[in-house]
Design goal:
single chain, 249 residues, alpha+beta, six-stranded mixed beta sheet, four-stranded antiparallel beta sheet, globular, disordered N terminus
């Protein structure tokens, strides 16, 4: 009986204590509020678990082959050229894409040779609608070229530099990849070398005969042609360019 009474008194005191401490009558100064930290998780760039670098594969991408060019200038239609052209790049080097920081022919010009270390720039893609199977890989993050082209057209692009200058992201890797199991003809536009190099108009009056185009443009002076999706021809600001296409005889 004494034990039951003691328990009842203990419960009564706990309830009273609870009321005294947590009702609106308690002075605010007697309550310690622990702030809740809201942590915003960084959303990674779009990826599809695709290879972040070109793979080694005998014969390159199946069902054909792709050619690769690099340039540092823009040209009017039917009045162009490129610095270097390699036929059947994937077959020749047994790869399924292009690592632009490790080009497998020394006569190509890569971004580190064309762009000053501290210069801020953007990376744009054009003609992706004609080569929807390709992916552009930037700093290890893989993006469908069609998605990066939409960002290029909207201006929603990160600013890079090769040195990681203030206000920029350091560009440490840039590549173009293809599905190693699918034929290149289903991933990349077919066209002819001379048409691409001369900048003949492609389907729908596209740049470089419709070849998939990646450009690096000056973040301050570069201007994008809204009709072509590439840097405006004849206007300073285009720093480096690569075109890739399925070589069709």
């Amino acid at each position: 009986m004494k034990y039951a009474t003691a328990v009842s008194l203990l419960v009564f005191n706990l309830v009273a204590c609870d009321r005294n401490n947590f009702t609106s009558k308690t002075p605010a100064g007697d309550i310690t509020t622990v702030p809740t930290e809201v942590v915003e998780e960084e959303v990674p760039a779009a990826t599809d678990n695709a290879e972040s670098q070109p793979q080694s594969q005998a014969g390159g991408v199946p069902g054909g082959h792709f050619d690769l060019d690099t340039s540092t200038e823009t040209y009017a239609f039917n009045a162009g050229t490129t610095i270097r052209h390699v036929h059947e790049y994937d077959d020749k080097f047994s790869v399924t894409g292009v690592d632009y920081f490790k080009l497998l022919d020394s006569k190509f010009v890569d971004p580190t040779e064309a762009v000053a270390a501290d210069l801020s720039f953007k990376i744009i893609v054009a003609n992706a609608q004609l080569s929807p199977g390709a992916r552009v890989v930037i700093n290890g993050q893989s993006h469908l070229v069609t998605e990066w082209q939409k960002r290029s057209q909207s201006g929603d692009l990160p600013v890079y530099s090769l040195s990681g200058a203030p206000g920029t992201q350091k560009l440490t890797a840039l590549a173009l990849t293809f599905d190693p199991q699918k034929p290149i003809s289903s991933q990349l536009i077919p066209t002819v070398t001379d048409l691409v190099r001369s900048n003949a108009p492609g389907p729908g009056q596209t740049y470089r005969a419709g070849a998939l185009t990646i450009q690096i443009i000056d973040a301050k002076t570069g201007q994008i042609d809204p009709a072509l999706g590439v840097a405006k021809i004849g206007v300073p600001g285009m720093l480096w360019e690569s075109t890739v296409f399925w070589h069709k005889d």
